[in-house]
Amino acid sequence: MKKRLFLYFIISILSAFPSKAQPISPEIYQEQHRPQIHFSPAAHWINDPNGMVYYKGIYHLFFQYYPNGTTWGPMHWGHAESKDLIHWKEMPIALYPDSLGYIFSGSAIVDSNNTSGFGKNGKTPLVAIFTHHDPKGEEKNKDDFQNQSLAFSLDDGETWTKYAGNPVLKNPGIKDFRDPKVMWYASEKKWIMTLATKDRITFYSSPNLKNWKKESEFGKDLGAHHGVWECPDLFSLDDHGKKVWVLLVNLNPGGPNKGSATQYFLGTFNGNKFIPLDEKTKWLDYGPDEYAGITWSNTANRKIFLGWMSNWMYANQVPTINWRNTMTLPRELKIKHVGNDILIASEPVKELAKIVSNIISNKNISVDKSFDLAQNIKEIKFPCRLDLDIDMLKNFSIVLSNDIGEVTKIGYDKSINQFYIDRTKSGKTDFQNEFAAKHFAPRFINNPSTKISLLIDVSSVELFADDGLTVMTELFFPNKDYNHIKIQSAENFSIKKLAYSSLKSIWQKD
Ligand code: FRU
Known about the structure:
Elements lengths: L1 H14 L28 E12 L2 E9 L9 E7 L6 E7 L6 E9 L15 E8 L1 H5 L6 E8 L7 E2 L14 E9 L4 E8 L2 E7 L6 E6 L9 E12 L2 E11 L8 E9 L4 E3 L5 E2 L7 E5 L8 E5 L14 E2 L6 E8 L2 E8 L7 E17 L11 E7 L5 E6 L5 E7 L4 E5 L15 E5 L7 E8 L2 E6 L4 E6 L8 E20 L7
The site of beta-D-fructofuranose has 12 residues, from strand 1, strand 5, strand 9 and strand 13.
């Protein structure tokens, strides 16, 4: 406890100077539950990833940030940078609230042709497009308190200036009118803004980012609608030489395992309208703890996705002390055909290989009720990665546990052809009554063989099954860190290949 108080004291002092780059003290990243392979802020509250843009070898990650507390508050854009999508450096706050309101979610682009005119002396402007949320208007129960605004950077994303003509897209009288994601539509030389407008998406276009014209609406009667549509994204993916357009729509609440989640639509887009290929509701991640996920702009032919690793059901209550909430691992998105369906598969980015310290492979493991990885692997350490190659899928589970009997089970239930994660006995769960639950995700193929990867951090697991067709992200908060991994099955179950690798902390200097 004394150590915690001391840490809190140090962090309070550090955060009293928010405009300086945050000096990172190694202790900060050793607190209980602190993720070791995921980005989390040195201190205080975060939610959605924002303004993700790749420029001059740097991945910029901005995020909804409240620098004066560990619960949601007046929103700023925090900022972190990475050269490899894995190691992050927290930077000074990029955008502060102002007379037009809090700085809600949005995106950033590289304005290579200086369409905005913000560029000076040949400097390419980076432009951020975000929602100004006016809390006074909200209090007065007005319906036009969310408007879209701009800020630009002429030093490659380090510092930002708000546009004097803000807002650039005024609210027509829709309370939920936010989270602009902007992309360049090359064939018509115009910008497309994809905006969440309550129960649908509205597309706007602009030649210069300042004047916007409404193009069309999408989705009022399609997809999941048990909550508000938020944080959309529109981009194309390659499908054997053809373009498939992807529309991501985050939804809160109404996710497949309650609370917030990311659904997607595949279709065509012609600069004016998005037309879906089918009417099925599809989810990018079936776990409860990926939300507000969107992709980086300017990454050429890779599409890299990252979400907030939490759920609005309990994001304000999770039992961390000095900071609250984390991002998922970055994932690369690809199109896959399964029978007559077209789906998105996600895989952790290949850059993760950088923190793999050693891979221990075991072949042909027969699980006789229970197989403890420690039998074959001298020292099981977290964070780690497990890759299982299975020829004949049966009911089984991978059990993470500690010495005081707390467990999280990741498994497969053949009778329903679903994967699951059960955190009912995972440790601290009583901070909110929906947290202790078992969550399910469908399997999209029926093959007896499968590949499963688990990325396990101190307080989370990300499951990628069938080469990323089924994804689940799940948090847990054990009282003592997990230190055992067992595989259990009541059947005669064997694993063709099991690879374990420990992952180096991204905060560790070496
Ligand atoms: C999604 C969201 C956005 C909004 C932001 C506010 O999590 O509600 O719609 O811009 O968070 O922090």
